Amino acid sequence: MKDFDVIKNIWQEQQEPELSQVEILKRMKRSRNRLANRLLLEVLLMSLSIAVLSYAWYMIPFRMWTTHLSLLIFMACCLFVLFAQLSAYRSIHNRDEMLSKPQEYILQLKKFQKERYQLNTQKYLVYTLLLGLGLLLFFVEIFFVSTIWLTLIGLGISVAWILICYFWLMKKYVRKEQGYLNEMIHHLERLSQQFTEE
User: Fold this and answer.
1) Would you kindly state where each structural domain of the chain is located, as residue ranges?
2) Residue 126, pLDDT score
């Protein structure tokens, strides 16, 4: 047990290797660009989803009001995500004051990180519930034009996919995004410490 404590103390006493300011900035910018590119891809995919949904709504003659309400809910959810991701992309991509005001930029990043965590947890729950409601309303019309077994299978697959997205994929997404933001904050704090030590 004493050997473990000695190893633990040695491990804790080790400091991170000193990196040049240029290397720290490169790493920070790389993290920022990865996050910004990911957000931009999500904006493009959501735009494509909105276009496909609009086309289907226009071209398919749905008969029931529940279907139109469900499509309205789907469209509102898609627009919410589109504007949230676009806003996050602009916020993270258009920041060049990291050198001129590093402390202020660190505070902005921490605030951005909290807002993104809230969006990806609490607001995503509301988004998921609305999608579920939209699916239920959509499957009312499917029930009248299809067999009950096909309707139940479609509904089951849809619910299973929503549960997988909520309980597994979204948790993975949140961890990855928070990792990018933590890495950016860490690099900027190291850079700020090096400025104060000089």
Assistant:
1) 21-90+101-197
2) 93
